[in-house]
Request: fold
Amino acid sequence: MEAADALASGPKRSVGRRLADLFHGHPKLGLGALLAGPIGWLVIGYLGSLAVLLIASFWTVDALSGETTRNLSLHNYDELVSQGVYLDVALRTIGVAAAATLTDAILAFPIAFYMAKLAGSRSKAALLVAILMPLWSFYLVKVYAWETMLSAGGVINWALEPIGLHSPGFGLTSVWLVESYLWLPYMILPIYAGLERIPNSLLSASDDLGAHPVTTFRRVILPLVLPAMVAGSIFTFSLTLGDYITPSLVGGNVQFIGTVVFANHANNLPLASAFTMVPLVVMVVYLMIARRLGAFEHL
Amino acid sequence: MRGPNDRHPAKAAWLIAAALIVAMVGIGCGGSDNGGGEEGALQKIGKPEGELNLIAWPGYVADPWQSDFEKETGCQIKLREAGTSDEMVDQMRTGEWDGVSASGNASLRLVAGGDVAPVNLDLIPNYQTVFDDLKDQPYNTVDDVHYGVPHGRGANLLMWNQGSVKPAPDSWDVMLNPDTASQYNGQISVYDDSVYIADAALYLKTHEPDLGIDNPYELDEKQFNAAVDLLKEQQPNVGEYWVDAAKQIQSFANEDVVVGTTWQYQYFALLDEDAPVAASPASQGFLPKEGATGWSDTWMISSEAEHPNCMYKWMDFIVSPDANAEVAQYFGEAPAQTKSCDPSTLTAAAKADGLSPDPKFCDKYHAADPNFWDNVYYWITPVADCGDDRGEVCKDNNEWVSAWTEIKG
Reply:
């Protein structure tokens, strides 16, 4: 102690020591300094860019040069509302996002249930690796692989031909298929975690009281695991809603929010910004509902 | 972070204002110092900077001429290939690029936006012998100020799969007439850019003369709506709207699509892969009977070019007889340089490209035949002024872009 005091009060106090002294007496200052970086990043990098996007959506484009002019007007929103195509595209995208989410929920539940309740520790680990493995490979490669498989000369046609069927080709169906494939792991993992939290004794009790397995599923498991499903759906829904690469590679002649924004980003940035507000608003509403359903405890 | 670089906002604003004033005075001085060159253009080529950043159409900057240029001038090229004029305009506005191979639907926007600088043609000796009908054109010269060097020109191609599309079509009917197009439901490949509306307008010019369409880029409300409606009818039959040339090559190779509009670049690439594709015959100048939209491209220099000396070297190099013959034959378009049409130059260039010699290449591509180009409508930015006695009632680019989103549904 004496040695430390001597050092602290000595003439050669280092900067680090002086800072340490400062923070020692003021715990709030320490917390503030610790959080300043991440919070600054969040506010400036995330919210700031959203604010710029919002402002840009009120700008217009010069007809001759195509340059953005910074006169505020409601022109873009007027166009979004008055031209039916934007509503069609928005509804189509939301529809595919919902369909992919539902598909993933249906596919994910049995896998997650098996992992959480039935599998031994070894096969559980193997399954976890199998589910996470696709996430290690590059997203674009997977979509390109689907593009090749779905094409007219692709493996899907080759396999289905003998039974008189053919590949869905490029379009709405293929986008739904590929989105469902891509985001499945994001649904399995939260459901798996949610099922792990349900004590086995609860299921036994339901069984002991004479409930049919379907009743146990419906009245015990589903209500308990629903928040986890909603948590998973936040990922599958929002990732599909904002996806651009999948629709542009396997979407054929069908437009989605992402492709419309991309097509307009070069020649009408303000309109693209205004249209970006659509998925943003959809996600805000979605998250509010998800919060109500208790999904945030399962993220 | 506090530090010596910490500036008071007001002070920063003053500095910017001062810089702007200096810049404006600079431009003014450039104007008064008009020693035979263009206003605000480079007066003398200095030492090459060793680097050159270009944004170009696929196939415009490639070997062998790219390496030749780099060896000759020491300017190393960084290249981005663009799929649409919109992408080129967007990229040029980042200020990252020294130059661009702009088509007419980009060039006017770039000039109007101040993104490209006037060009001092005295510094480009090879410009002298460029074909006269490419000089002083509305897409490269504004108010008598020159904004670049012609690169070459061509027509958009009608291409089809010989196995699936029979008999060989001689008209855009095959993809625009709703009755015939429906035979190829989901297998039609359409260029994904609002400028494609002009293709529909050109088709209507022949097939619905009552509309009175003359120039497919100068469309009044009635004409425009007719073209848009035609494309809306076409939409259900479209398999893909393409912007990426490589992706279109793949779609034709996989036979996901069997008929579409394309560029010579994709056509020749597919022939190289022995894909069973065909295009409107060379004997007809690659044109279906209605004619075609096309391009006449211009190399332009950015107003913020970091490597102006290298860019001037490039603009002179790309219209030099050998390089222009090489790029024209590689891509499949009419060269801009008259001297490129010399049979021995063509033969040497074809050899350098690894192609079979074609001393009559320029005849085939009508390089020296101004009348041929009457049936080719170069891409240009649509503006409200119809250019005739109709006045300011034509649809401008914003309306074309907005309609294009609507067409795709």
